[in-house]
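Board notes (copied after class):
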Amino acid sequence: MKQVVAALITRDPDEVLICQRTKHQPMPLRWEFPGGKIEYGEQPWDALRRELDEELGIDAKIGDEVARIQHHYKNGGAIELRFFLVQEFKRDLENRIFKEIRWAKRVELPTYDFLDADTKLVRDIAEGKII
């Protein structure tokens, strides 16, 4: 099972940073939270710090783990997603790999076409159960 980390980056209690995949990535143009795979020997928070630097050019202070989800794809693949809260970061956000990044209101998150693995979490965030 692939181990993946993602960040719930907040600007205030009502806004979360979301990212749209490019048309050339798997599951094109779907929305997700920034992050990526944990490399061999890497701790989850170190992997997330590295991914956020690579994808957004920020030096993030990784907060608490707020959710963990296992998702099984129809093709047989499986991932475990670990979501961490990020409320502080240094440097300006720079979109390095996505089609688009945007600050979205928590309650509006379900209107975006998120990856299947994220949909329950998106509902929980919108309902105020997480963050």
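Comment from the instructor: DSSP finds two helices and nine strands in the chain. The first strand starts at residue 2 and ends at 12.
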